[in-house]
Amino acid sequence: MGNSTPFAMLLLLVMVVIGEGHVWKITNTRKKISTTNNNSISKSCDLYTGKWVYDSSYPLYDAANCPFFEKQFGCEKNGRPDKNYLKFRWKPSHCRVPRFDGADFLRRLRGKRLLFVGDSISLNQWQSLTCMLHTAVPQSKYTLARTGGLSEFTLPAYNTSLMLLRDGFLVKIVNKKIGRVLDLNSVSQVISWKGFDILIFNSWHWWLHTGRKQPWDFIEDGDKILEDMDRLVAYEKGLRTWARWVDLHLSSTKIKVFFQGVSPDHMNALNWTAPNARTCVGVTGPVLSATNNGVVEQHPAERIVEKVLKQMKKPIELLRITPLSQLRRDAHPGVYGIGGHRLPDCSHWCLPGVPDAWNHLLYASLYQSTSSN
């Protein structure tokens, strides 16, 4: 009996160690699962810090197979000779994002309505998404219609529609006796933003327009009528008007609202550190050495967007496209847009191209369970 006691104690110790190991595994598994769920990305997973990597399987679609392509974005068709810009994929540093799956995206969108609201940068992203989804189900019938500023792409087999409402300011421009007045106190749409399951808003580029491109003559700020004001100040006031409307009218948890971050342009090399290039023209490769927005300081409009969104009651997800897009000075139409050599385009993006990455991140934010590296 005395000889069996040490053996029994040893056996008990082994059982405890095994048991503790088993308990640790269960606890660790639960912790890992708790960071993600079936419909959303882990909150600890930063999609927007990463780098562009060469991927020979890119692009995700062939522009020639997208029959409703806008000419201004079709750089290949417009004669761009280099193809390297098509071969880069955004890779987040701290999480794994599976390859874009358009068929899965459509299954999840079944019976839903998605609306982009914004300027021609929204058009850029909307066009990208329609091509990505059409490529995924090329045999599926679709309809495409435009009425005024509203464009609608529908896939009847999925009972879903992707719409674009052109709206550069999100606040009203009113015709008055004195002229056209940009009213910072009133949103531009009251009914047109309602009735959607997913909304992606955007506004920035039109706030900078002057001269003949400026679509207003005066600014109304509270009870004051001004000929002009600091555009960043006006932008923030306009965004706060939009934010109040969204908090009041789109508060339902069933409605998902995104704000497309500020899309950077590359018209002035002083803003993006390129000693050998004054604009985007002739640039054929991305900045590969940087992993975030380290090449330039944060865009001032992006700071305003982040501040306004943080103060809203409605949880709004920011598609923080600014830093990753700043690295792609090579991906604009340049002289291969509709302006040609006379008016090179360093604001919009070639398609296929950078907006495809924005939509991949939109898809990940909406539906994919990603995992941390």
Automatic annotation (TrEMBL):
Cell compartments where the protein resides: Membrane
Q: What is this protein called?
A: Protein trichome birefringence-like 43
Q: How does it sit in the membrane?
A: Single-pass membrane protein
* Family of this protein: Belongs to the PC-esterase family. TBL subfamily.
Domain Trichome birefringence-like C-terminal: start-end pairs: 97-364
Recorded superkingdom = Eukaryota
The coding gene here is LOC110799469
Native organism: Spinacia oleracea (Spinach)
- Tell me the keywords, alphabetical order: Membrane, Signal, Signal-anchor, Transmembrane, Transmembrane helix
Query: Which residues are listed as membrane-spanning?
Result: none
Q: Where is the Trichome birefringence-like N-terminal domain?
A: 43-95
According to the UniProt entry, where is the signal peptide? 1-21
